[in-house]
What we know:
The structure is a homodimer. Chain A is α+β, with helices and mostly antiparallel strands. Chain A has 2 domains: 4-165, Aminotransferase class 4, branched-chain amino acid transferase, N-terminal domain (D-amino Acid Aminotransferase, Chain A, domain 1); 176-340, D-amino Acid Aminotransferase, subunit A, domain 2 (D-amino Acid Aminotransferase, Chain A, domain 2, Alpha-Beta Barrel). Chain A is built from 8 helices and 19 strands. In chain A, strand 6 and strand 7 (83-86) form a beta hairpin. The radius of gyration of chain A is 21 Å and the shape is globular. The two termini of chain A are 15 Å apart. The model of chain A has no long low-confidence stretch (mean pLDDT 96). Strand 4 (54-56) of chain A pairs antiparallel with strand 4 (54-56) of chain B, so a sheet runs across the interface. The complex binds pyridoxal-5'-phosphate (2 copies). Chains A, B: This is Branched-chain-amino-acid aminotransferase. Chains A, B: It comes from Mobilisporobacter senegalensis.
Amino acid sequence: xxxxxxxxxTAPKEIPDEDNPLVFGTIFTDHMFLMDYEEGKxxxxxxxxxxxxxxxxxxxxxxxxxxxxxxxxxxxxTEDGRILLFRPDKNIERANRTNExxxxxxxxxxxxxxxxxxxxxxDEEWIxxxxxxxxxxxxxxxxxxxxxxxxxxxxxTFIIILSPVGAYYPEGLDPVKIWIEDxxxxxxxxxxxxxxxGGNYVASMKAQVKAHEAGYSQxxxxxxxxxxxxxxxxxMNIFFKIDGKIITPQLNGSILxxxxxxxxxxxxxxxxxxxxxxKITIDEIYEAHKNGILEExxxxxxxxVISPVGQLRWENHIMKVQDGGIGELSxxxxxxxxxxxxxxxxxxxxxxxxxx
Amino acid sequence: xxxxxxxxxTAPKEIPDEDNPLVFGTIFTDHMFLMDYEEGKxxxxxxxxxxxxxxxxxxxxxxxxxxxxxxxxxxxxTEDGRILLFRPDKNIERANRTNExxxxxxxxxxxxxxxxxxxxxxDEEWIxxxxxxxxxxxxxxxxxxxxxxxxxxxxxTFIIILSPVGAYYPEGLDPVKIWIEDxxxxxxxxxxxxxxxGGNYVASMKAQVKAHEAGYSQxxxxxxxxxxxxxxxxxMNIFFKIDGKIITPQLNGSILxxxxxxxxxxxxxxxxxxxxxxKITIDEIYEAHKNGILEExxxxxxxxVISPVGQLRWENHIMKVQDGGIGELSxxxxxxxxxxxxxxxxxxxxxxxxxx
Lengths: 356, 356
Ligand SMILES: Cc1ncc(COP(=O)(O)O)c(C=O)c1O
Ligand SMILES: Cc1ncc(COP(=O)(O)O)c(C=O)c1O
């Protein structure tokens, strides 16, 4: 069992009023978890301490060579007051896959889970309860060697911070408009696209700014080699319903293996809906739309859970989906997953983990 | 003129003894330069202060989304005691191209140069003078918004730190063995390969570790699309001398436009040696080697200036170059560039900038 030292804050902050909308990712709770790593010594000094600034050498490798992993998951408070995490094991697994790709140390799974529980429990009063709200959990790992030169760091710090977040769609599900990018590339096979690390996100910003200026809220990436295969959205995986079948790009090394993606695939199978994980070209989508069989499109990710897509723009083609509205499957998927997360629907798959 | 506040250290460190070899990137001088940026307000609070830790919110965007630019250049002390920078304008230009690609603010060129001069001048006693030594200068820019969510930051800090470095080749030029990577990919057209940013370096670590384990000191990357075209080495551009001609990969968007690369091209032209900047496949190199016309191979970069390559390994082929020794052009190029840097050879191109 991970031995965690606790140092409680002596200056607790005011917990935000849930009736004012919580802007995603701007407010942080009273505590954070930290744990250090040193080559030879391993992980040590696990602690929950007051939330506050990190002190790092200007030469710390994270500032120069991008050795940083992050994850994102949520804690929910159920109506009967229990605290639930949604599939934390999947995030922990993915974190360690990222760590492996970036030559960073593995975090033992039980310790990672113990750390999540410890810090969430410490700040449990911060978990909002209003419909659609939750406590966003951001674990991250950074390289700290004070060294200029390209090689894996020998020292790291693992940190978990918490942020109460409002409903992604305060007025109920709201379809998004998506820009299909054909100039910039996010990631390529053989690269680090399947890792959850800063380099992939900074690479996406320029196209995102361009899409925003054109009135689109998100970018859908094509593959970096042929620029024809659909990859994923900025912070979501993507699903298409074509002629009754669900199709989503296969995990190919350059897209993130989403936890929500995996959950959606499992639910479709349970419901007897055929799902295909495979390569899919933008031309196929365009044809399906032309033939009137592109029935639904939705993104999947921790932040919004399910994001119905009302419009896709590719070159000069604008494809409306569901007449800009919400598809039946998108709605059912959203209701089911959020229902399980909030303990309202029976969790037959053991997806939720209670924090006691 | 940039208005810089100076706060001198009250606890100067001991300047390392030059007779003990200085390990690259491990020792830092007494001062550093900092300057902050805020959207709407612009750059402000330029200052030279004692070298010490940075204090950053755990939610600072640099830890999560990889918005970080860095540069690398050197200051030299000439025999008559002058301080010279080598082509700082090229690093400044490149920094701003990186900033543009990563949606970070431009740093005015004159201010950047004034900052370099101010901090180098402050710590001029730290510039080593022994043959081959220099003061390595590391400017870098990091995103500081305390915000979780993928978009460009609104606040940044620009920092310059200094590190005295020993001779890269204390015993004179020493040929390196290079591993040609055919599994992992560093960057791809449309991505951020030509930017000097952490994401590209962390992406390179796994192949580098693999190469080291096999006894090779550096990785040579192939393009991410066809995996046939030569790109660059981990922290160097690459040149081939084939049948009397110099060939180097053209700037294609996925390789770093090296300052040393540019200098080598200009010198070759001056010397009447034909230079081709073009696409070049690994097969072409293999054939040239087989036909006995692969005369020299060398890498170019700020750290080592010129690195003769004595051996290339591609799949199961081992190609020896110059019988593992140093080519005539590599040696002449090294002597000329370092001669200009140290003020021993007349600088007819105005490459050096004196710090007064
Ligand atoms: C690039 C990218 N793809 C997909 C996802 C969706 O993954 P998950 O469902 O695990 O949140 C995310 C967000 O987490 C992401 O950042
Ligand atoms: C990836 C990469 N390529 C090439 C270079 C060489 O560039 P320069 O000659 O400007 O140092 C460097 C190092 O600076 C580098 O990091």
